[in-house]
Amino acid sequence: MSLHPDTVAVHSGRDDLNALGVHALPIDLSTTNPLPDIERGGDAYEAMATGGRPIENGSLVYQRLWNPTVARFEEALATMEHAEASVAFSSGMAAMTAVILAMTSATGKRHVVAVRPLYGGTDHLLGSGLLGTEVTFCHPSEVGVSIRPETGLVIMETPANPTLELVDIAAVAAAAGGVPVVVDNTFATPILQNPLDLGAAMSLHSATKYLGGHGDVIAGVVACSEEHAEALRRVRAVTGGLLHPLGAYLLHRGLTTLPVRIRQQQANAQRIVQWLIDRPEVDEVFYPGLDGDPQGILDRQMRGTGAMIAMRMRGGYAAASSVASAAELFTHAVSLGGVDSLIQHPAALTHRPVPADARPDADVLRLSIGLEDADDLIADLARAFAVVETLQETKSQRI
Ligand SMILES: *Cc1c(COP(=O)(O)O)cnc(C)c1O
Prior knowledge:
The chain has 14 helices and 12 strands. The chain has a domain at 259-398: Alpha-Beta Complex (Aspartate Aminotransferase, domain 1), CATH 3.90.1150.10. By secondary structure, the protein is α/β, with parallel strands linked by helices. The relative contact order is 0.12. Strands 1-7-6-5-4-2-3 form a 7-stranded mixed sheet, with helices on both faces. It has a 5-stranded mixed sheet with strand order 8-9-12-11-10.
């Protein structure tokens, strides 16, 4: 039966609940599991430590290898991403680390092509060389010429952070040749974009953001083929960047409302974008499709424009900093994708570790739009803009 995304979000990863006689998702908090006997215990251990699934009549042995509550969430997310499997981690950065290790050190191909702009933490991780990789940072159009025989991975992000620039997933996948492409799909979520359908090998999420949606779980997840999932589970079993089952439970529950949240947050964001465009305090608004989508990327790869906005303040850094502090309904905080709206300054915070020539401009603020009434959010921004004007008037009077 082919089901619509809203139905999939509510029902996935729950096929066996009726047979278990329960309605809510069960949580398994065991750290260790009884062994049937030494041989079967050993076989089960071997299967899972090398990235495989639990064996029949075996044991889960030790839950750094496998946790049923986490596996349920992984199954649900994989279904939503049109993937064979997914592998969850303790954070988005643990997920990115596992992807890099699995595709580079584990394969002997230590060169990575990274398409900028990227999330500050990803840029920092790659630039640091901590994982023993050599990295070529490039523009989307330079992927083809950057690929070498020893390239193990191409990393890209779309919509990009924080400028909401769209990068053509199919074009990057084609330019990468056979090299696996991982797309950071955190901003779009599986509701608006499915990178695997467009030729990417992996879709990565900071599940901390929209998937969780309530600001109370730090987690990461990668949707991919079973073959790539095995490589990722092997890294996870060995390095231990696990998602706790309570986090997995909250994420799985969060998936059920993801389509509705995205629709309403996006509707709010579109209202706010329309309002911002006409405001004299704002020099430029960044939002997918605002430029008319001349290359047709939005139409080809997304089913919506999302709920992230960036704006360039006319008064430069001083204005940006005052607006971030003056907003009241918008919490001045990093992170994004939750039910409540956030405002933050990317150059000073999320993108601080990025080299200056690739860092966002100092007059840019990023907004994550939540589920509040759009009129209240607009009124809050209007109030914050008025504070900036008062400050500027006071300054000119002093001069
Ligand atoms: C937050 C974020 C990450 C990192 O995820 P954590 O869960 O904070 O480790 C990666 N990519 C994007 C786009 C993000 O917003």
